[in-house]
């Protein structure tokens, strides 16, 4: 399986970079991993709805340019479906079984994802009703993908 993670913004915090690199290394035993960052748009603190949409659209264009045409796309969105780790693992396993060997996960910027990205997505996934920093989501997502591969192979992993 080839996993793409397309995320808005550059990871700055050293501890997040270390965590992302650690899980990417662990995952490399199970799948090819491509971590791709697209620049975020600078946004003032107070935006009109129209300005926010324009920013999401610009970021969305950059995201869409990074996603392979034949990839199954999973957008991380608060309004997406919540799954247990076991459900997530089973769904990833089904994708591989049914020939979806390229899976792209998309993490938007602080304003979320554009309508164009959401239309391109095959599904929307939510990790919680809570809002997490988009920078932290990369680490959480990689850990869950790693956990999914361990579950699917029947390998031990802490609960």
Describe the protein in words:
With 159 residues, this protein is an alpha/beta fold. The chain has a single domain (2-152), classed as Alpha/beta knot (3-Layer(aba) Sandwich), CATH 3.40.1280. 44% of the residues lie in helices and 22% in strands. The protein has five helices and five strands. It has helices spanning 14-27, 49-66, 85-97, 115-120, 134-152; strands at residues 2-8, 32-38, 72-82, 102-107, 123-126. It has a five-stranded parallel sheet. Strand 3, helix 3 (85-97) and strand 4 (102-107) form a beta-alpha-beta unit. The longest helix has 19 residues, at 134-152. The two termini are 24 Å apart. 27% of the residues are buried. The model has no long low-confidence stretch (mean pLDDT 94).
Note the main attributes of this structure.
Alpha/beta knot, five-stranded parallel β-sheet, alpha/beta, 5 strands, globular, 159 residues
Task: Describe how the helices and strands are arranged.
Blueprint: E1 2-8, H1 14-27, E2 32-38, H2 49-66, E3 72-82, H3 85-97, E4 102-107, H4 115-120, E5 123-126, H5 134-152
Helix pairs in contact: 1-5, 3-5
Keywords: Cytoplasm, Methyltransferase, rRNA processing, S-adenosyl-L-methionine, Transferase
GO molecular function, one term: rRNA (pseudouridine-N3-)-methyltransferase activity
Organism: Saccharococcus thermophilus
- CATH homology superfamily name: SPOUT methyltransferase, trefoil knot domain
What is the CA-CA span between the terminal residues? Answer: 24 Å
Profile the largest sheet: 5 strands, parallel
- Count of DSSP helices? 5
> Which structural class fits the helix and strand makeup?
alpha/beta
Q: Tell me the Rg in angstroms.
A: 15 Å
Domains (count): 1
Helix content: 40-55%
Q: How are the strands of the largest sheet arranged?
A: 2-1-4-3-5
Q: If you average the pLDDT, what whole number results? A: 94
Number of strands: 5
CATH topology: Alpha/beta knot
The dominant shape is globular
Report the sheet-strand fraction: 15-25%
Protein name: Ribosomal RNA large subunit methyltransferase H
Pfam family, one: SPOUT_MTase
Family: Belongs to the RNA methyltransferase RlmH family.
Keywords: Cytoplasm, Methyltransferase, rRNA processing, S-adenosyl-L-methionine, Transferase
